[in-house]
Specification:
Layout: H1 2-20, H2 25-32, H3 38-59, E1 70-71, H4 72-89, H5 93-101, H6 108-131, E2 137-139, H7 143-147, H8 151-171
Antiparallel strand pairs: 1-2
């Protein structure tokens, strides 16, 4: 059942991506150049909706959280690879799959890049685990745990911050 639910939500999310125009190369490059915030607005909206949904279902006992260990080294390395790939291709990985589905053949390079990157990571994982992932390893923690507050306080604060960002983006016509 969870696979069916995942498929349905994935299709809905893909529909939203397509209808919003986020799959276009121009929107992606506009985001990278910080002259079009549509991509960031969509990502930030998804983060807030996801946080609210996850913690709502967690609080009523429908789901159980399974946190991954925090690794500053892993996050920095992964973020750099992600950012460089996005800048070189003009599509972030998930968007490249949607763009390919929309008929943008150039996004096929992103699909190859994801497969190649996954294979390289599998090969170099022992090195990464020893020298990179171990940097800044804090265990299984979350922002509310670090701050010592209820998760809803963090979610409300982030929601307000994101809404303020949206207002600024709109005033600047970004």
């Amino acid at each position: 059942m969870s696979l069916i639910f995942g498929l349905i939500t994935g299709i809905l999310f893909g529909f939203i991506l397509q209808r919003s125009g986020i799959l276009s190369y121009e929107k992606q490059v506009g985001a990278l150049r910080l002259i079009d915030m549509a991509v960031f607005k969509l990502m930030l909206s998804a983060i807030i909706v996801g946080a609210i949904g996850i913690y709502f279902f967690y609080d009523i006992g429908v789901i159980k959280l399974s946190l991954k260990a925090t690794s500053v080294g892993g996050q920095v390395a992964g973020g750099l690879i992600f950012g460089v790939g996005w800048a070189l291709l003009g599509y972030c990985p998930g968007i490249s799959a949607g763009a390919l589905g929309e008929g943008h053949i150039d996004a096929l390079w992103g699909m190859f890049g994801m497969l190649f990157g996954g294979a390289v990571y599998a090969v170099i994982y022992p090195f990464m685990k020893k020298y990179i992932i171990s940097i800044g390893s804090y265990g299984k923690i979350s922002l509310p745990q670090i701050l010592g507050v209820n998760h809803w306080i963090v979610i409300v604060a982030l929601t307000i911050l994101i809404l303020v960002m949206f207002i600024v983006f709109e005033k600047k016509r970004l």
